[in-house]
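// run 5 | inverse folding | seed 20
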């Protein structure tokens, strides 16, 4: 467990270093010039990497650079599609672990029953988890915790895709809007 945390911290630091490198060099601009014919692929990839704690920092730098050279709506929609794919992959990886971790966290049998079985049966609690999860996804924070809350809410998959898309479009527009305001 301890080595996993150390590895995660190392990956986050590496991600921040990569973001710094991207921000201080013309890498993104040069990449966009070299791949003008496939610019939508670059936007899709920026959105895809906009989802994880390990890749969000470089993705935000890419989105900021892409906002200068592209339509905000193209960036938000194509990036939002990429983010949905990224969120879905993360969701597939963590959804089965969510309940197990919640149960393990609460430990005692009676507390497990109250929290996991009784509390999560109430629709208002599940809706609250869903709404907080959607807000986290819309923010420029990593999506993992928001996806976990949405997983707890037990929504249908089609609503997951719609929520992820709308939330990520809002998040990408916010990052791009801030980036453009500083240029």
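// decoded
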């Amino acid at each position: 467990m301890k080595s996993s945390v150390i590895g995660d911290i190392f990956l986050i630091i590496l991600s921040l270093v990569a973001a710094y490198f991207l921000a201080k060099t013309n890498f993104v601009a040069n990449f966009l010039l070299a791949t003008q014919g496939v610019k939508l692929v670059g936007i899709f990839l920026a959105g895809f990497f906009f989802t994880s704690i390990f890749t969000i920092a470089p993705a935000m730098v890419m989105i900021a650079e892409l906002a200068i050279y592209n339509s905000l709506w193209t960036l938000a929609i194509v990036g939002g599609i990429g983010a949905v794919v990224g969120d879905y992959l993360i969701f597939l990886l963590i959804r089965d672990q969510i309940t197990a971790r919640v149960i393990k966290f609460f430990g005692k049998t009676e507390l497990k029953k109250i929290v996991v079985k009784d509390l999560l049966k109430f629709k208002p609690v599940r809706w609250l988890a869903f709404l907080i999860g959607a807000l986290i996804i819309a923010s420029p924070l990593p999506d993992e915790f928001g996806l976990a809350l949405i997983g707890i809410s037990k929504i249908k998959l089609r609503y997951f895709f719609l929520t992820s898309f709308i939330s990520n479009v809002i998040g990408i527009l916010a990052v791009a809007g801030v980036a453009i305001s500083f240029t």
